[in-house]
Design brief:
Elements: E1 4-12, E2 18-26, E3 31-36, H1 42-49, E4 63-66, H2 78-88, H3 94-104, H4 120-133, E5 138-142, H5 150-160, E6 170-173, H6 177-180, E7 186-191, E8 194-199, H7 219-224
Parallel strand pairs: 3-6, 3-7, 4-5, 5-6
Antiparallel strand pairs: 1-2, 7-8
Helix pairs in contact: 2-3, 2-4, 3-4, 4-5
């Protein structure tokens, strides 16, 4: 597994929105959490890393992405939503890879179920399965816990944030300071398209202008949970 190296990234979005320069260098198994006010450039950053927005990024990592809306086709089963991705990426034994991914997120009994028949948390699981089934070298997650209750949030994060040196570098945009930020190896804070902080979550509370992004629960509390 390779690292993501995107130093001094600059990107441009719709309506004249500009981002950068920002440093997005993430090692395999690391989780970079990106926070900031609405309009600060968080989604533009993910779009740039995914190759969906003009930018100075030049990485060649294969990408798995979980969109905030889940972005599922409600006319197709959960299995077909995932299998379409594995087939398009030419994953070996694509149907089996799709089935295995859905089983791994606890949806082995819902393969034939349409997304509109699933709860919000289950839809998010399908989106996670789709992203992981293609064996990505870079995992991007856009506010994957938005609208979920605390228990479902923790279940989704446990599935969406693989750990260990063989896990892909992961970048997650979030508004959920208390549940997501403690799981970060590093936190990137954006303001008006500019990088204003990059470092450990534990340092946020000591910066008055950034204290709003400091979690009320610590990393030790998070890792002690029995998901």
């Amino acid at each position: 597994m390779r690292a993501l190296e995107a130093a001094k990234l600059v990107a441009h979005g719709r309506g004249g929105l500009a981002l950068g320069p920002v440093d997005v260098n993430v090692l395999p198994g690391e989780v970079l959490v990106v926070v900031g006010a609405t309009g600060s450039g968080k989604s533009l950053l993910l779009a740039a890393l995914a190759g969906l927005a003009p930018s100075t990024v030049a990485h060649d990592l294969s990408v798995g992405m979980v969109f905030q809306s889940a972005a599922l086709d409600d006319a197709c089963s959960a299995f077909e939503n995932v299998a379409r991705a594995t087939r398009a990426r030419r994953v070996p034994a694509p149907d089996e890879a799709a089935r295995t991914a859905l089983v791994s997120v606890g949806l082995g009994d819902a393969l034939a179920t349409l997304p509109r028949q699933l709860s919000g948390g289950m839809r998010r699981r399908v989106a996670i399965a789709r992203a992981l089934a293609v064996a990505p070298e870079l995992l991007l997650l856009d506010d994957p816990t938005a609208g979920l209750d605390p228990r479902t949030t923790r279940e989704v994060l446990a599935l969406a944030l693989p750990s260990g040196p063989q896990a892909p570098p992961t970048v997650i945009v979030t508004h959920d300071v208390d549940e997501v930020v403690p799981r970060a190896d590093r936190v990137l804070v954006l303001s008006a398209g500019r990088q204003c902080f990059l470092g450990a979550a534990s340092l946020l509370a000591s910066e008055p202008a950034l204290a709003c992004y400091a979690p009320r629960r610590g990393t030790d509390d998070v890792h002690a949970e029995a998901w």
